[in-house]
């Protein structure tokens, strides 16, 4: 089925061609041929066959780990609406809780709600600008922890199989910044297990993480860390050692504050960002013999 026909079937759930790159934290990139937002599981299930017939689909949360190409994305962008922002705590008598979080809820909001409810172990997420769905897909983490440390199961919509699966953590193949969740899966919710903690200590930890990130990481238009850290050393320190802090290609620049961040100028170009990422990769390989692996997702590029 064509995207145009799918959008007709979606009625008020879909909109035709519109800005795509502007919805990411890079704020660069072009348009997409169509968008559809599902506000309920029922709406998603009802459109299952149409989605399965669509060849190119990108699931979009906050776009905080994504670079969209400058041209038109010849595909459908899928988003989840307000009903996927719930957070439900099922406390147990042993001072532990199973917490089920909707895929569209922002990580900082989830971290603060969980802390306010008296549970600890998710404070690290307060400084990550993504959603729960994106975080579990890439096994996001920071400050000594990650999603894999707490996840017990993930609820997925399998686009091609047209069904909902609940997948246990041991079957998600979590690794450093990766999981078995694929591009044809839509995360609906994630269940994590945490323990009760001391409320003030948790709040203090939240404040310290926010302070540290503001001090050490840049704001502006970026997608966080560009490269995964190789074993035993941070990608940022390697890039800095190569003298690449501040290096610029067109409208993109390696951050002066943190070398593993690449900033885009206002009205910048995704092609410039991509070119600078490649340049940094090649220079590190040439000078250090280290093959850096990108952490961000590239959408709509030819290669």
Counted beta strands: 17
Shape summary = globular
Which bin fits the share of residues in helices? 25-40%
CATH topology of the largest domain: Uridine Diphospho-n-acetylenolpyruvylglucosamine Reductase, domain 3
Total individual domains:
3
**Tell me, what is the CATH class of the largest domain?**
Alpha Beta
Helix vs. strand class: alpha+beta
- Largest sheet entry: 6 strands, antiparallel
Count of individual helical segments? 8
The overall average pLDDT, rounded, is 96
Distance between the termini: 25 Å
Please compute the radius of gyration using only Cα atoms: 20 Å
- N-to-C series of helices and strands: HEEHHEEEEEHEHEEEEEHHEEEHE
Can you describe this structure in just a few lines?
With 303 residues, the chain is an alpha+beta fold. Helices cover 26% and strands 27% of the residues. The strands form five sheets. Strands 6, 7, 8, 11, 12 and 13 form a six-stranded antiparallel sheet that branches. A four-stranded mixed sheet has the order 1-2-5-3.
